[in-house]
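Design request, tokens follow.
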């Protein structure tokens, strides 16, 4: 796969989970990375570990809440000041919210999920795309979910926002393909990250491992996905090896979303 020397990629939600896995994969390929997260302590720790493991990559960290439009403008401007351009954007930061049936869902939590998962992804594209247009090239990967393709019990806010991410990705592909910008969404199933560990705690507070085992047994592969497996797919989509895949919502779920 093409390397990422002199390629600049912004990753949101980079301090842990899927964001950190993609950061690691791109750092191993020598990228210039802007790592964005609102958890400053975890972000600093992640950056220090990456820098000691992959000293050939370059790093900029920006503490930002992606639901804050000014903070998004700031991480985009800081990236251009530091590295001169933006080649790739992994628009990943998101939250699950709380699990509850739709009529009992806490309305403030619903709005928070919309602010982060929907508005945060929109602001990111809103301010990154004009920078990519200047260079007539770019690759964007937004993070939807299997919950962006199907319903998921007790997760109406999450499902609503992830369907929105899938839709916005299709629109960006239509509107900016002429500028050499390819936009896709990925739709992960259950991948072993801190977010998913928290979800299993909500399903079975006494025995989260039992909830995980039960979930894994329903997957055709009988296991959860690994963050490194998602990182390989995202790295391809962000690379120049991807010349013509755009506007797609690509499931990475061991085939689970095909079960009827
Ligand atoms: P995670 O909770 O393990 O990590 C998310 C990271 O994003 C954290 O570092 C967190 O601090 C950061 N973050 C959250 N909200 C933020 C905000 N408003 N501003 C800045 N940073 C913020 O989650 P993960 O499992 O790595 O999930 C990453 C993305 O993948 C999310 O959009 C999630 O919905 C999606 N996803 C994950 C799975 C899965 O199985 N893990 C499945 C489908 C979709």
């Amino acid at each position: 796969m093409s390397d990422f020397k002199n390629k600049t990629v912004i990753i949101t939600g980079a301090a842990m989970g899927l964001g950190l896995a993609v950061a690691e994969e791109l750092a191993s390929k020598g990228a210039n990375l802007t790592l964005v997260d609102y958890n400053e302590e975890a972000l600093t720790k992640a950056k220090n570990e990456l820098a000691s493991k992959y000293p050939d990559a370059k790093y900029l960290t920006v503490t930002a809440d992606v639901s804050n439009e000014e903070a998004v403008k700031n991480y985009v401007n800081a990236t251009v000041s530091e590295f001169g351009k933006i080649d790739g954007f992994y628009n990943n930061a998101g939250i699950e919210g709380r699990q509850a049936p739709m009529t009992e869902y806490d309305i403030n939590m619903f709005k928070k999920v919309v602010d982060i998962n929907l508005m945060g992804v929109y602001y990111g594209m809103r301010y990154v795309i004009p920078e990519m247009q200047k260079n007539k090239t770019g690759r964007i990967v937004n993070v939807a979910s299997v919950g962006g393709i199907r319903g998921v019990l007790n997760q109406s806010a999450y499902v609503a926002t992830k369907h929105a991410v899938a839709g916005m990705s299709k629109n960006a592909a239509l509107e900016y393909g002429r500028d050499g910008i390819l936009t896709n969404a990925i739709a992960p199933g259950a991948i072993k990250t801190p977010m998913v560990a928290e979800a299993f705690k909500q399903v079975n507070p006494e025995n989260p491992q039992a909830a995980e085992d039960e979930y894994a047994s329903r997957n055709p592969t009988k296991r959860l996905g690994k963050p490194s497996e998602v990182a390989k797919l995202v790295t391809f989509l962000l690379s120049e090896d991807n010349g013509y895949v755009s506007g797609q919502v690509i499931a990475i779920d061991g085939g689970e979303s095909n079960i009827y």
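Comment from the thread starter after seeing the answer: thanks! The chain has a mean pLDDT of 97.
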